[in-house]
Amino acid sequence: MNKIFAGVLLLGSFCFGQNQQEIEKPVRTLFTAMKNADAELLKSVFSETAILQTITKDGVKNEDINDFIASVSKMQKNDLDERITIEAIHADGELASVFTPYSFYFKDKFSHCGANSFQLVKQNGEWKIQYLIDTRRKDNCKEIQ
């Protein structure tokens, strides 16, 4: 009986680990695309109806996904370097949430820090970013290496 329980526990951990990697993939790909100024790769991680927002001192600011992709594509490779730590992943069926504190570097110089909150949806067997909201600040930053 203990062997069966251990086997089920091990299989469940393996499956969650696999699912976790699948969920993380578009998040990590987003930052790779930014670092490489790769518009096509960047576009591939978002759903067709994705929403992008930033919390500012004046409230919540909406950003157009196509404008974001266009601005990234105008950069040089390695100009944008957002370093993240994945702190939490929660999933239920075809919905997932990922929380990532970050440090942002522009042309190798520390710029700001904050946190990203992603909502992902699984579409046609693939995780896509549906909603991204972030904070940005210059003080009380813990730089991520």
TrEMBL record:
Going by the entry's taxonomy, the superkingdom of the source organism is recorded as: Bacteria
Q: SUPFAM superfamilies this protein is in?
A: NTF2-like
Question: InterPro entries recorded for this chain?
Answer: FrzH/put_lumazine-bd, NTF2-like_dom_sf
Q: Which Gene3D superfamilies match?
A: 3.10.450.50
The name this protein carries in UniProt is Nuclear transport factor 2 family protein
Q: Which organism is it from?
A: Chryseobacterium cheonjiense
